[in-house]
# Entry
Amino acid sequence: MVLLREHEEAVATAKRHRVARARKRPRVDFFKSRAVPLDLEAAENAVMRAVAALGLPLSVVENSHFQDLLSTLASCAGVKGVPDYRGPSRRKFSTVVLDRVFEQEYGVARTRVLHDAGEEGATISCDAMTSRASKRCLVNVVAQTRNGAIIVDVTDTKFQRKTNRFTVDYIVKVCDKELEAFGGLLAVNEIVVDGGMRHAMKLMRRAVHKRRVETNAALAAGTPPVITSVCVAHTFNLLLKDTHDHCSAVKDTVTAVKSIVRYFRRNDKAHELLVRAGGKRLKISTDVRFGSTFDMIQRFLEDKLQQLRKLVVSASWEAFCASHPTLEKKGRAKAVADAILGRSVHEHLWSKVEILEKTWKPMFLALRHFDAQQARLHTLYPALKRLPAETRVQDPHGLLPGFQAAVTDALAERWKYLCEHTPGFLLAHALNPVYLGDTLDADVKAFTRGYFRSVGGELSRQLRREFQDFRAKVGIDFEDLQDIGDPFGWWNVAPGAFPQLSIVAKRVMLLTGTATECERAWKDYNGVVSLKRNRLSRERAAKLVMLYHHMHRAPSGRAKAARSSAAANAPRPSAAGAAAAAQHIGSDDSEDEVVELSDSDDTSSDVDPVGGHHVTPMGPAAAASTSDGEPLAFGGTLDIDEYHSDNPPPPAIPQ
# Structure
């Protein structure tokens, strides 16, 4: 009886607790009484944003499970007036809703990226690709500023002749149309193309200048000339390839490593034994991006340190070889073991791989730097000057004969290549306050002189005077040269002695010199337009790719909080480090350099070199004036071809 009474009391207590909790919990009638009418337009826009950000096909709205999900969400939210919301129709979703969301989201993204382009300039990069889905040649244009990057246009070149003239006209037309609200071609600071377009650089500069003058001659006279570049990341990729192709010993070593890696990747049992032994999954290189060869070499060395050599001498490997049914497969497994152990023709394989890894690592790090987002061209000059010393690896036994000579020749050839087709890095180095105490090379002085000469008029002479004062540190205090983290930020608050030079310098400091954003755009394009989804029209595919490129890269709230927390907790430079940096930059031990850019070198005038007509500087872009009250303005184009004909680049990288 006692136990029965205790059980009844426990049941009654539990019932009282359930009733109390039920009173605190809102009822369904509570939601229904406070239900809000469904905003169909907002709901459709939300569905389209989710589908576009995830890269899902538009036909997902016809899926019954997806419709059930929308209906359940609507009922849980207590929507009034729509008892069974199942989303928009497929036709409406792919036309009206897509256009509406594209105008909203793409307009916000374009304004966020390009709202400062009129003052700071924008980098325009262009690249081509043959689509795997449609088998057609496509061309895209990406605009990049300090605030991010955005796809401007993607077009199909069907029924078009793929000539330099077509590409130049396409870039000029797209920039003039899509960037009209932000200044059009006047906001273009730099145009980056692939190496295949390097011979059209002069045509590109002249076409941009001609269109600028046709649009607004006064504002064109007050805008610095556009700078053209080839992709620096692609150049470093070719540098790695040159060192490989010009040395037969390196080819043999890479081929041996690739055969081993390919064997482990194609044989599941061998790969399973490697993973059990503690090794990592080996990487295989690709023929398109030679930087992947370094990844393969580096991972191969890591696996050597993690049981790869122990694996091929273990009993499990012997059992694995004995399990092969044919002599051919047994011989192949034995050949792989001999190569790993450095026997027969693969003697000293690991020593050769280590030499390759140490030599290629500085080049690969430079490649990764310029392949990243927000790369800056002013870091290219010091990186190139460091490469000869960083790539000099000791090979006392002559395991790779001719390799160091091939590296030296490749560095010299790529230096000439960059000086000819990407000369903006020379001007960026000359205007970088971090290296204000260093002596400028002859090629840097020559290109700087040619750039200022292309400006034309009185402004050209004033820029050269301000540049001489800048290099001589006239009007620059010792405190101004301390803790220079960002050269753009330094020029943004530069001393008042350089009013015109600071305008040019801020644009130059934002040069990127890379077209890697176009490569990322192609990756997003292949994710949206695939082999199973190849019937999208060009306009609809372009809108979906632009939305996906913008929305799936937007950081979440958690990522933004983590980024702001990391920035707040970032270590600051110590007082000793700041003093050492200031001593290196502004020490009195080295004489201040005076760069002679005299007015006697100025053979230009206020005559436009394209049309030959006189440019009259007017408007707000030419607000500065001379001592006589005459306005100053930029005039003319930067003829890099004439600069290189008068000033050929040095035969090797300056040490």
